[in-house]
Amino acid sequence: MSGNSRKDLKPGSRVLIVQKQDQRTGKVTEGVVETILTNSATHPHGIKVRLVGGLVGRVKKIIP
Question: Per DSSP, which regions of 1-64 are E strands?
Fold first, then answer.
């Protein structure tokens, strides 16, 4: 499931994110959502979240 829709995410969801510095390479980081930072319902590049541990990035995939 892609991370373009806010309604699919909630704190505690396991996700793959791309951090700002990794956007060119596409390197993904796995983690658990602590806070959803994007206010809009959808975002074409992925919803921005903060993971437990403080990393911030855009969701590329939600792990079921």
Answer: 14-18, 29-36, 48-51, 56-63
Tell me the residue type at 32: V
SS3 content of the chain, % helix, strand, coil (to 5): 10, 40, 50
Which position has the token pair 């590329």?
A: 60
pLDDT tens, position by position, 7-59 = 999 999 999 999 999 999 999 999 999 999 999 999 999 999 999 999 999 99
Q: Identify whether the C-beta of residue 9 lies closer than 8 Å to the C-beta of residue 33.
A: yes
Model pTM greater than 0.90? yes
